[in-house]
């Protein structure tokens, strides 16, 4: 254990709330920002309402995680929050579900990067060349995590700065070419009312907000969890929401919805329409860099989740535990699992592969957010905190209910398998481990 004196933890090398906030925003502003405009084209510019609804829900969840950090500053991420609030079985389910969500979602993020890389190399539109490019993103990020969580966090924060350039270019392009009539004409391409179009769009849009729990998951790497987890989470979500709304208005105000639906690189297409092919190439390059940073951030999230599960006795000690911190086998195993997921999920098009992974990942994460909301309800009897917990629970459940059944059934199947495995796991005594951060 790394300590100063008897009780004061050594915060050297840990993340301040500013860097943690950039990591939160960086984990969110990734493939959702770069690909969802095309995915949302059937809903048209009315999807702006969905962005606002999801943004409010995300801010509620951000406040919820900040409150959990206040009540349980010693909790090590979502696993401890679920276990301390609802018991060991809930912690076990949270560990396995969040680990799988990180890895499956990461493959989807890599697919988004490959889509923009195909702007330069059209051969990557073919399934197996694209699969090889996906593996390239995954293993570069795995190497960054091998060098330590701090290195991975810095890469993610730096990539965020680069990744915002395409949005600045998109907003600038909209300032030049925005047409109110184009935005209005794209409001509802299929003639649906808001009551018909907004609910089905929520689960898709919320993919862009996954990662809001990043500071909570990495609480052991944050200097002052009781204070900084809340600050970092709210700041990260707020930055992402502003970026998303600006980007949504910019794209739908320039590109008609029917053309946007056919795009594989919407922001590059927007730049090409207004500034020409050279600027479009710059946008695509920045998107590729940003995706690499996002994959790195989520690789770290999956590794830290697996490490904590191993310390609890719910995963093999190859992931950590036993006072060994995070061994080299942790990132290597995670990289191997992501490789398998990338290969077995190959579809005829990148969009189809992306959609499958995104839907299941979103439902998994929303289910975990609901568990954490129940945990906050139990953590305090004060009305304000219970109202916050209730708001987070209602939003999470509503978003899952509105999701496609094709995404819900795989999630139910996963939880069923985990519940059956619990019959063996519950007989295993949790290992005695050093609660300190250990070497990275």
Description:
This protein is mainly alpha-helical and 440 residues long. The protein has one domain: Amino acid/polyamine transporter I (Up-down Bundle), CATH 1.20.1740.10. It contains 18 helices and two strands. The chain has helices at residues 17-28, 31-39, 47-71, 77-86, 88-117, 127-146, 149-177, 180-185, 194-206, 214-217, 225-252, 257-260, 266-275, 277-312, 329-344, 350-379, 383-402, 405-425, and strands at 3-4, 8-9. The chain has a two-stranded antiparallel ribbon with strand order 1-2. A hairpin with a 3-residue loop joins strand 1 and strand 2. Helix 4 crosses helix 16 (350-379), helix 6 runs antiparallel to helix 15 (329-344) and helix 7 crosses helix 13 (266-275). The longest helix is centred in the C-terminal third of the chain and has 36 residues, at 277-312. The relative contact order is 0.20. Residues 1-9 and 432-440 have low confidence and may be disordered.
Q: What keyword list fits this structure?
A:
440 residues, mainly alpha, Amino acid/polyamine transporter I, two-stranded antiparallel sheet, 18 helices, globular, disordered C terminus
Outline type: globular
Number of helices: 18
Which structural class should the secondary elements be placed in? mainly alpha
Q: Please name the fourth-level CATH homologous superfamily.
A: Amino acid/polyamine transporter I
**How much helical structure, as a percent, in the residues?**
over 70%
Quick one: biggest sheet?
2 strands, antiparallel
Work out the radius of gyration. 21 Å
Question: What is the C-level CATH assignment?
Answer: Mainly Alpha
- The run of helices and strands is EEHHHHHHHHHHHHHHHHHH
The proportion of strand residues reads under 5%
Spans of at least 5 consecutive residues whose pLDDT stays below 50 are 1-9, 432-440
Number of domains: 1
Strand order of the largest sheet: 1-2
Q: What is the number of strand segments?
A: 2
Distance between the termini: 13 Å
């Amino acid at each position: 254990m790394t300590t100063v004196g008897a009780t004061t933890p050594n915060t050297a090398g840990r993340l301040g709330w500013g860097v943690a906030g950039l990591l939160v925003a960086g984990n969110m502003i990734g493939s959702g920002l770069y690909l969802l405009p095309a995915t949302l084209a059937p809903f048209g510019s009315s999807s702006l309402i969905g962005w606002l609804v999801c943004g409010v829900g995300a801010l509620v969840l951000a406040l919820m995680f900040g409150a959990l950090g206040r009540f349980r500053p010693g909790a090590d991420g979502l696993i401890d929050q679920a276990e301390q609030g609802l018991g060991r079985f809930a912690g076990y389910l949270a560990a396995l579900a969040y680990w799988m969500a990180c890895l499956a979602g990461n493959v989807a993020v890599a697919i988004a990067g490959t889509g923009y890389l195909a702007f330069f190399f059209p051969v990557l539109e073919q399934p197996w060349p694209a699969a090889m490019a996906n593996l390239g993103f995954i293993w570069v990020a795995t190497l960054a995590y091998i060098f330590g969580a701090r290195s991975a966090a810095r890469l993610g924060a730096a990539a965020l700065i680069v990744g915002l350039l395409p949005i600045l270019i998109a907003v600038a392009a909209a300032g030049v070419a925005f047409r109110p009539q184009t935005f209005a004409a794209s409001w509802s391409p299929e003639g649906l009312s808001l009551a018909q179009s907004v609910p089905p769009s929520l689960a898709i849009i919320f993919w862009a907000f996954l990662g809001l729990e990043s500071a909570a998951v990495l609480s052991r790497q944050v200097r002052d969890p009781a204070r900084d987890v809340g600050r970092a989470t709210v700041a990260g979500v707020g930055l992402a929401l502003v970026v998303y709304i600006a980007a949504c208005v910019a794209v739908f105000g320039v590109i008609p919805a029917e053309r946007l639906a056919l795009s594989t690189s919407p922001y590059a297409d927007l730049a090409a329409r207004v500034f020409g092919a050279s600027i479009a190439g710059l946008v695509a390059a920045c998107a590729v860099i940003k995706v690499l940073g996002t994959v790195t951030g989520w690789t770290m999230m999956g590794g830290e989740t697996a490490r904590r599960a191993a310390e609890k006795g719910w995963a093999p000690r190859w992931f950590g535990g036993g006072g060994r911190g995070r061994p080299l086998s942790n990132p290597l195993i995670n990289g191997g699992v992501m490789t398998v997921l990338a290969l077995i999920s190959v579809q005829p098009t990148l969009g189809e592969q992306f959609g499958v992974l995104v839907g299941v990942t979103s439902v998994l994460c929303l289910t975990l957010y609901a568990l954490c909301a129940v945990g906050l309800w139990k953590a305090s009897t004060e009305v304000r905190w219970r109202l916050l917990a209730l708001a987070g629970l209602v939003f999470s459940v509503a978003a899952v209910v509105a999701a496609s059944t094709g995404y819900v059934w795989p999630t139910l199947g996963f939880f069923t398998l985990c519940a059956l495995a619990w019959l063996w796991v519950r007989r295993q005594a949790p290992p005695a481990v050093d609660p300190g951060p250990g070497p990275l």
